[in-house]
Amino acid sequence: MSAEDFKFFKRERDKREREMSFKLIEPGEVRVRIAPSPTGFLHIGTTRTALFNYLFANQSVGSFVLRIEDTDLERSNPKFEKDIMENLKWLGIEWSEGPDIAGEYGPYRQSQRLDTYSKYLEKLLSEDKAYYCFCSEEELEDQRQYQMSIGETPRYSGKCANLPKETVKKYLAEGKPSVIRFRVPVKKIYFDDLIRGKLEFDTGLMGDIAIAKSISTPLYNFAVVIDDFEMKISHVIRGEDHISNTPKQILIQQVLGLPRPKYAHLPLILGPDRTKLSKRHGSVSISEYKKAGYLPEALINFMAFLGWNPGTEREIYSLPSLIKEFSLDRVQKGGAVFNNKRLDYLNGFYLRRRSTEKLTEMCIPYLIEAGLIERIENNPGNPKKEKGDLKLFEAEEPEYKIIETGEEISFETLGKIVAMYQERLKKLSEISELTDFFFKDKLKYSKDLLRWEEMSDAELKSSLKILGETLSGMKLEDWIKENLEKNLLLKAEEIGDRGKLLWPLRAALSGKEASAGPFEIAEILGKEKTLKRIKDAKFLISNS
RNA sequence: GGCCCCAUCGUCUAGCGGCUUAGGACGUCAGGUUCUCAUCCUGAUGACACCGGUUCAAAUCCGGUUGGGGCCGCCA
């Protein structure tokens, strides 16, 4: 058996085993959820968790629930909820239930499920499995500090655990600030993590945990348990930062007699310093990446490979192909550093793959934003944009105007400009900086930019002169890049070093050290502007 | 500090006891194409944290050490 055959054989065997274990752990219906709290814009970490949940649900015809965890009224804001939903949709991560898509288990906002929580809370309270605690926050904080200082695990002392009923009643009547604590049974909790295997915890180390601020305001660890049960969640797939919450939640399930979902804790996404990715590392919200001009498919492909890989050498995956290939048992255990360079590479790759037409549509808003062009509104006889045969319409009527010069510019011409830069683009936002010289009247650059290697001023002048003469001799109807190239290359051969003619030309036309080629730029600029820019360059040489 | 988790090139990772001179991708460097940049092509660089054990055989299994991370809220 050759090495290749062997690898193939092994891969097939692994696949079969995976399928078998999948069947073993998946007897029932798969229902997963993503439960963001609307206290910030959609975060990279949340999105990766959403992606993995989405992939897992969709490869087994399961349900994917979007639940909004907005129990913290202070910090929750509907605008964040909107951002979360819009960006998930933009990425193509579609959920099948909640918060506005009806399912059997709604409502899907915790703020709308308060009655449910109080029902369970009352049950716990009446069975003395939970109790009111009247300790002040300062008191608790001091205690924490003290316990840490003597090397103990900070945990609640149990001071209010056995308050007489009358005292509790009295305090409650007085409106004394309180929380509801869960009486934590001291025992060992074991659970099987789908990614990490057996995990073990000693609950004696955690003290009685707060599960609600009041009968109508539940806290995270409690609300999650209730919701996951009520919504019949089969698999809880979430970040590793929740591992230590899991035993708490299991304990509450046990006391309430609720079934336990399967758990899978995903490795964290890390910043360059290998700590949990957060705002201080820079951009962490999807909307920022969207604005910078990253494509959904690039972001998806990139995020999928943060902590997961298919085990083959294929690296390019769309959402549907990820659904096919994804499996939890190929998820990594260690955290993954978010590598911007790789994201840029993938984005460039997907940008090059887009049709020029589509790309142009996507670039135009950035050109407008940069103040380079504007849309001509209400242009009579100019049909509204339709997807499909754009060119037919746009070629006839200019739809845009160059702000600096007031000239009209067609979608088709913009398309040619974009096409020129398609393979140079890493993200859409770069388009304006790359192509601004097309939309300017006068270019600003220093004389030395025109110089190719060690050219003297005299040589430079002579090159510019040849350029001017050759180009002004061309007929307007011949002004296309093929002819420009043919004529200019002829002259360049005469000089010997092509750079002596082509570099000054390109520099004079673009005003940039790096740009697209001179012939294609000249074609777009047109004869008049091209000659004017050569004249400007001559002027710059003479006057310095 | 306590509890828990983790450990292969700079980064993402392949590796499930012999197929391995540890493979791929990004990055970096060099070369080719080229007026420049980019694309594309070729090549190079570069890792099993350490120490013990198990075994005929260990990156792979076990133990320890070290290192890194997460959590320890009336946040989620």
Commentary on this structure:
With 544 residues, the chain is an alpha/beta fold. The chain has 20 helices and 15 strands. Among the domains are: 25-101 and 267-353, HUPs (Rossmann fold), CATH 3.40.50.620; 354-439, no CATH class; 447-542, Arc Repressor Mutant, subunit A (Orthogonal Bundle). It is 47% helix and 11% strand. The strands form six sheets. It has a four-stranded antiparallel β-sheet with strand order 3-4-7-8. The protein is elongated and about 105 Å long. The chain starts with a helix and ends with a helix.
Layout of strands and helices, then pairs:
Layout: H1 3-25, E1 31-34, H2 44-58, E2 63-66, H3 78-91, H4 114-126, E3 130-133, H5 137-149, H6 165-174, E4 179-182, E5 188-193, E6 197-202, E7 209-214, E8 217-218, H7 220-230, E9 235-239, H8 246-256, E10 262-266, E11 269-270, H9 286-292, H10 296-304, H11 319-325, E12 336-337, H12 340-353, H13 356-369, E13 373-375, H14 390-396, E14 400-402, E15 408-409, H15 411-421, H16 431-435, H17 457-472, H18 481-495, H19 498-510, H20 518-542
Parallel strand pairs: 1-2, 9-10, 11-12
Antiparallel strand pairs: 3-4, 4-7, 5-6, 7-8, 13-14, 14-15
Helix pairs in contact: 2-11, 7-8, 10-12, 13-15, 17-18, 17-19, 17-20, 18-19, 18-20, 19-20
This protein binds one RNA strand of 76 nucleotides through α1, α5, β6, β7 and α7.
